[in-house]
Specification:
- The chain contains 13 helices and 21 strands.
- Strand 18 and strand 19 form a beta hairpin.
- A six-stranded parallel β-sheet has the order 3-2-4-5-6-7, with helices on both faces. A five-stranded mixed beta barrel has the order 17-18-19-21-20. Strands 9-12-13 form a three-stranded parallel β-sheet, with helices on both faces.
- The chain is α/β, with parallel strands linked by helices.
- The longest helix has 24 residues, at about 385-410.
- Bound molecules: S-adenosyl-L-homocysteine and iron/sulfur cluster.
- Iron/sulfur cluster binds near residues 191, 233 and 270.
């Protein structure tokens, strides 16, 4: 069955904003605070900026103290069990705040609640939760919140309808920083890697229109943002669903053409779809950071096949090599799952070997977590927890050693960084990022935040570089 894309009309979003204005008026002068607690990936961070945008239009200020908040929104993640356990634990803890603050509204949204069994769990075992809504309903948050805010007697609302292909433009945003910004270019995922819950909870791939993305990027640059990260589960399939002749590399070029001094980053790239055109474009576009997050997941071909990743280790190695041919200074990072069902110790060794060959600048390593409803959840899994933990520890040691060695290669070099914030530490009070995204600690005036600077790297460790302004 063909997938139907549903563009939410500007009028529908304006109607939601009118609801915000209505709420603002009804609540009147009374000061009010909201807390938005975000778990998981950058896409969720970006979604939380929309929730805050709406809340700001309702007249809410923001707090990170649950005892002060009139409205609490917990934006959840479902990728691993660990994230879900943290959410449930923290939501449970909110009952202390709610006791002290009668009338406090607790909402839980995002990927976790889009799974039926989790929505049920919240319904049955978490009576303090007033509102539950999935990622497909986010654009209707004002309407949903209104329905619990002004109910005659307490009303619980659960809205976790199926993926309806919706793409909404024009939701007000309240961004977190002033230097770095997230910019979603597409939603959902079509890949169905056998371990992953994302396609089930986020729905099918929907690309935003290039003109909407470019307009938002222009606004960001005009507002002084210097570091824009384009977001999508697999940016390499950007545009396919639009039926126009624009792919991700073309989109990069359009954003690169915007006047101004800023950097473009993106994540995530799927190795099955990364193309030479993409690498060439990255090399040619002067604003495009030389940074590539290319999750490999495993270095063993049988495991990659069982994961439904559509590439083998040879193809991955060739791609990394090709990307480095175009950009010798490219920073490559990856994600790896340890202990996928059926993975043997020997198969795991292939992953270690691949890491030694690619020499990733940084690796994000995870122990496999069984997700309800995914094909991998049904696969036999003989390895014990201890075995998996041993593999994980070994991979982490490898990752840390390689990161440390790669960082040491920066010592003595002078390079351009973007100063993006404070560290809170007296010795090296500023944090910054290299073009490739590596963290550099510096000492300097806080007035430099938001500007590019030349630094000489004086020392390093596994996690960061340390530099002096030149
Ligand atoms: N779309 C991105 C990743 C999204 S999830 C991509 O394809 O690369 C982020 C990472 O979480 C994945 O790369 C994977 O390494 C990890 N992950 C996803 N599902 C997992 C699971 N069931 N158990 C453990 N890690 C998982
Ligand atoms: Fe999950 Fe695979 Fe889609 Fe990434 S590409 S979100 S790992 S299904």
């Amino acid at each position: 069955m063909a997938y139907v894309r549903k563009e939410i009309s500007t009028e529908s979003i304006r109607a939601q904003e009118r609801i915000c204005a209505g709420i603002n008026e009804r609540l009147g002068e009374k000061p009010r605070l909201a807390m938005v607690d975000t778990y998981g990936c950058q896409q969720n961070e970006a979604d939380s900026e929309k929730l805050r945008g709406y809340l700001a239009e309702m007249g809410y200020g923001f707090t990170s103290n649950e005892f002060e908040a009139d409205v609490i929104v917990v934006n959840t993640c479902a990728v691993r069990e660990h994230a879900e356990m943290r959410v449930l634990g923290n939501v449970g803890q909110l009952n202390h705040a709610k006791k002290e603050k009668p009338g406090q509204i607790i909402a839980v949204c995002g990927c976790m609640v889009q799974q039926e069994h989790m929505a049920e769990k919240l319904r049955k075992s978490y009576p303090i939760v007033d509102l539950v809504f999935g990622p497909h309903e986010l654009w209707r948050f004002p309407e949903l919140l209104e329905s619990v805010l002004f109910a005659k007697k307490r009303r619980r609302v659960f809205e976790t309808g199926p993926d309806d292909g919706s793409v909404a433009e024009g939701i007000p945003l309240r961004r977190d920083g002033s230097v770095k910004a997230w910019l979603s270019v597409m939603y959902g995922c079509n890949n169905f890697c056998t371990y992953c819950v994302v396609p089930y909870v986020r729905g099918r791939e929907r690309s935003r229109r290039p003109e909407d993305i470019v307009r938002e990027a222009r606004e960001l640059v005009a507002a002084g943002y210097k570091d824009i990260t384009l977001l999508g589960q697999n940016v390499n399939s950007y545009g396919r669903d639009l039926g126009i002749n624009v792919d991700f590399a073309d989109l990069l070029r359009m954003i690169n053409d915007i006047e101004g001094d800023f950097l473009i980053r993106f994540m995530t790239s799927h190795p099955k779809d990364a193309t030479e055109k993409l690498f060439r474009t990255m090399a040619e576009c002067e604003k495009c950071a030389h940074q590539l997050h290319l999750p490999v997941q495993s270095g063993n071909d049988r495991v990659l096949k069982a994961m439904n990743r559509h590439y083998d280790s040879e193809k991955y190695l060739r791609q990394a090599e090709l990307a480095r041919k175009y950009m010798p200074d490219l920073v490559i990072t990856t994600d790896i799952i340890v202990g996928f069902p059926g993975e043997t110790d020997e198969e795991f060794e292939d992953t270690v070997r691949l890491c030694e060959r690619v020499r990733f600048d940084a690796m994000f390593t995870f122990i496999y977590s069984k997700r309800v409803g995914t094909p991998a959840a049904e696969m036999p899994d003989a390895a014990t927890r201890e075995q998996k933990q041993r593999r994980f520890d070994r991979l982490l040691d490898t990752a840390n050693r390689i990161s440390g060695e790669k960082h040491a290669e920066y010592e003595g070099r002078t390079l351009r960084v973007l100063i993006d914030g404070e560290t809170g530490k007296p010795g090296y009070n500023l944090s910054s990022r290299t073009n490739g995204g590596r963290l550099v600690h510096l000492k300097g005036d806080t007035g430099l935040i938001g500007s590019f600077a030349e630094v000489r790297i004086v020392s390093s460790n596994t996690w960061a570089l340390y530099g002096e302004l030149v």
